[in-house]
Amino acid sequence: MNRVLLVEDDPDDLELARLAFARGDFSSSIDVARDGAEALDYLLSPDREPPQVVLLDIKLPLVDGIDVLRRVKADERTRHIPVVMLTSSALDRDLHACYELGANSYIVKPVDMEQFMAAVNNIGVYWLSLNLTETHS
Fold first, then answer.
1. CA 78, CA 75: separation in Å to the nearest integer?
2. Which residues pair with 4 in a beta bridge?
3. In angstroms, how far is the first alpha carbon of the chain from the final one?
4. d(CA 44, CA 38)
5. Distance of alpha carbon 101 from alpha carbon 120, whole angstroms
6. Residue 30 falls within a domain, yes or no?
7. What is the pLDDT of residue 137?
8. Where are the membrane-spanning stretches (predicted)?
9. Quick one: DSSP state of residue 47?
């Protein structure tokens, strides 16, 4: 079974993403972290199998998504995990910072509900069905 970590503090976006994954039928287990500190605890825990992909928002409580990305990509145990930035920020500085730190993809959340769900579904198709990774090939 595919495991996805969704790091999202907005309850509406969280529910839409879950619904999109359910509709896509990826046989995925969706784990949720609602802030950056919870995401780091999840990802850096030695007792947990890493997710196949992380969907990471930038604007998070406690630890922002850019800092989460920085720490995940700097750690030998987690740097191979694909991280897709799924954020409302279209700022060039955020885009540049995320790619500099090793983000695998950067997607600005569509405002329209159906477009948002289609974007999340496309993420699932690519990262869970098409893409091969070192640990889940």
1. 6
2. 30, 53
3. 12
4. 10
5. 22
6. yes
7. 44
8. none
9. T
Contact 56, 13 (CB under 8 A): no
In the block, residue with structure tokens 């972290």 = 33
Looking up residue 42, the CATH number of its domain turns out to be 3.40.50.2300
In a domain? residue 135: no
Residue 33 has which token pair? 């972290």
Query: 82-101 pLDDT, tens per residue?
Result: 999 999 999 999 999 999 99
Residue 113 within a domain:
yes
- 25 inside domain: yes
- Structural domain range at position 93: 2-130
Q: For residue 118, what is the enclosing H or E element?
A: helix 113-124
137 residues of the chain, pLDDT tens digit each: 678 999 999 999 899 888 887 887 766 688 999 999 999 999 999 898 899 999 999 999 999 999 999 999 999 999 999 999 999 999 999 999 999 999 999 999 888 888 888 888 888 888 888 887 665 44
Q: How many folded domains does the chain comprise?
A: 1
pLDDT of residue 11: 93
Euclidean distance between CA atoms 90 and 103, whole angstroms: 15
Q: For residues 14 and 17, what is the distance between their CA atoms, to the nearest angstrom? A: 5
